Amino acid sequence: MYLAQRAAVALCRNGDPRAALALIRAGEAVPYDVYAAAISALAWRARERRAGHDAAMTLALHTLDALRERTEFEADQQMYGELIRAWEATLYGRTTRKQTQLASDLAALVGSEREWPAMLRAFTEQVLSRMEEGPLLRPMHHTRLLAINIREKHFLLSKRLYERARNLDVSRLPFFSTQRNLPHGLLWLFTQATKRAAQRSFAVRLYHDMVSFGYKLPLHASLLFVRTLLAGDMPTVAQQTVLDLCESGHLPNRAFAPGVLHAFFQAGLFEPALALAEALYATRTTHWDSEHEVPTARLEMYATCLYEASHTRIGHSPEARARLWTLFEEFRLALAHALAHRRDDGDGLRAAMQAYHGAIRLRLIEYASCEERQRVLGCVEELLEELRDLVGEAPTLTALVQRATSREALRREPTSPNAMLV
Question: Quick one: average pLDDT of 50-55?
Fold first, then answer.
């Protein structure tokens, strides 16, 4: 028996695990090195993507299970590393078409079914359970296993692997590289955490990790993150997140600011929204041509606040509307200064259209809920006249009154600036 075992180990080193598998399947006492040699040979065959590689991978996992069940030993760091590399090749590599007798024999041992998702989950669970005892994988192999689980969309396992890497050694984190762009897999992990109410704390931790490594989040992911924080009653964290983005220069303000302000207004956070507006648009203020000129970013700040607030529940608050009217008066003064000192007033007029649409909508909300409707209609007519003077066109008062009688229409949010009052 001893000679048979030594011969089996020697054959494994030459790429033929059949003798070792036969000894293991016989159910007799087999030393650790026979298991190790068989797993190594099978994993190497799977890594090389030879014919029958999928059968080799399946047999390697079965042999690993047999090692844990029949002996008092566990797989070591080297063995797990080989299996992780084999997983990569099995799931994502190309297959060599040449068929051999060895490949046929291995395939005959396992049949045709390959439950890769379930097998990967079981393997990862085993690795994670072993990690409770201490470090098990080399940093490179840890990162590879995390990448495989992310690619296979196993969120909870990916999260556990990430947190384990974070606790063990920063070099195990997938950020620890020279690439400048955020890896797509990590963006998926962050997005999934952001979408799950129970994973908000993990999303916050992952966000801070990404930012600390200098990565820039895409616009849609940043906005989704802020909205998630507000929905989770974490306004302070949401506000600080936006301010951090402003300070780091990673924020595409023109596209990002309206969505952020809308989210804060919708959450009823009026003062924080105004404070963020100041920060968001201050980062875009360029030099002024004279000490009296008002920068376009300032006009856009007023306009965005008025427009976004008028399309959220905060526009139905009398106290908030009073503050917004003060903001609108400030906008009027700023616009007058801007038009007086500029020849090219295209940006200012676009901001004016947005601000006036927001102001008119606030009046429509007031019209639908107050008794002094004639006074409100007079105010609306004044706004329409001012808008016509500025841009040459405006909706009719009759059309606006018809809209004001429909609460459902008032609450519907437009999908584009062209639909502001449609």
Answer: 75
